[in-house]
Amino acid sequence: MDISLILDAIVAVLLITTIGFAVVLNRRLGVLRNAKSEIEALIAQFAESTDKAGSGIELLKDETKRSGEALQGKLDAARALVDDLAFLLERGSSLADRLDGAVGAARAKIATGGASKRAQGARHPGRQSSVTPVGADGKPGDNANTSAGADSGPGDTASSGALPDRPGPDSGARDLSAQESDLLKALQGMR
Question: 182: closest CA among 118, 108, 114, 106?
Answer without folding.
Answer: 106
